[in-house]
Amino acid sequence: MAPRPFWKGYLKLSLVNCPVTMTPATTEAEKLRFHTMNAVTGNRVVSRYIDAVTGKPLRDEDKAKGYARGEDDYVLLEEDEISEVALESTRTIDIDMFVPADSIGWIWYDTPHYLSPGDRVGEEAFSVIRAAMADTGTVGIARLVLYRRERAVMLEPRGKGIVVWTLRYGNEVRDEADYFDKIDAQKPEAKLMTLVKRLIDERKQDWSPEMASDPVQDRLLDLIAAKKKGRKRPAKPKAAPAEPSNVVSIMDALKRSLAAETSGKSSGK
């Protein structure tokens, strides 16, 4: 069953608009979470804001945002002052422009959301906007207030719906040239390339969500289940293999790797 949408509003392109709903495309609902406990009493503990100078607890109504302009010197901003500089409408995705779908690098993608028509009446307008983007190979760019911040978002047609990606802010993305330009651009030796491609072919598989499973959470769940039943904790997993040492001969290492891959497949049959 699909979760309830966390956002309802309108999708707008010029004079065309339709009601839409949006739901995060990812979830942490299954993520294992722990409470901080008092190990002596077995009671949960609570956290409180304390004034760093007076040591007194802070009342909710006395909280404010502070921007540091020097040591122990802050500019204080109230919540309503911050809200006033946000977009006037937080409930309309007004598409400002369209750009080629392949022109936005992956590093700008932040958080995906599923966008769907809000009702049957709006499906036609929604579908024609989505289909037109798909046919022209473009994505839409808009601005929207999400998670209490104004963000640039990208609307990407996907199947029968649209994926809304929040985009990272410009000051959050580092220039790859600062890191990659130092790498030697020398073309790899043809024989080495052939061997590595063979290794890739040996390990090639179809993608499966199980490839991104969380083994640590699985072991924690086993530990919790054992404690519930009063059993001893499960055996510790095998130690991680030692870090590889520097390879003297890449060719020899690749040949040994291929031999191991072939041997492993043979023994597994």
Task: Please tell me about this protein's structure.
InterPro entries: DNA_bd_Ku70/Ku80, Prok_Ku, SPOC-like_C_dom_sf. Residues 227-246 are annotated as: Disordered. With LigD forms a non-homologous end joining (NHEJ) DNA repair enzyme, which repairs dsDNA breaks with reduced fidelity. Binds linear dsDNA with 5'- and 3'- overhangs but not closed circular dsDNA nor ssDNA. Recruits and stimulates the ligase activity of LigD. Keywords: DNA damage, DNA recombination, DNA repair, DNA-binding. Residues 227-236 have a biased composition (Basic residues). The chain is α+β, with helices and mostly antiparallel strands and 269 residues long. Among the domains are: 7-28 and 85-172, Ku70, Chain: A, Domain 2 (Beta Barrel); 187-264, no CATH class. Helix content is 26%, strand content 26%. The protein is built from six helices and ten strands; from the N terminus they run ββββαβββαβββαααα. It has helices at residues 79-84, 123-136, 177-180, 190-203, 215-228, 250-268, and strands at 7-13, 16-24, 65-70, 73-77, 92-94, 97-100, 109-117, 138-146, 149-158, 161-167. The chain has an eight-stranded mixed β-sheet. It has a two-stranded antiparallel sheet with strand order 3-4. β1 (7-13) and β2 (16-24) form a beta hairpin. The chain is extended.
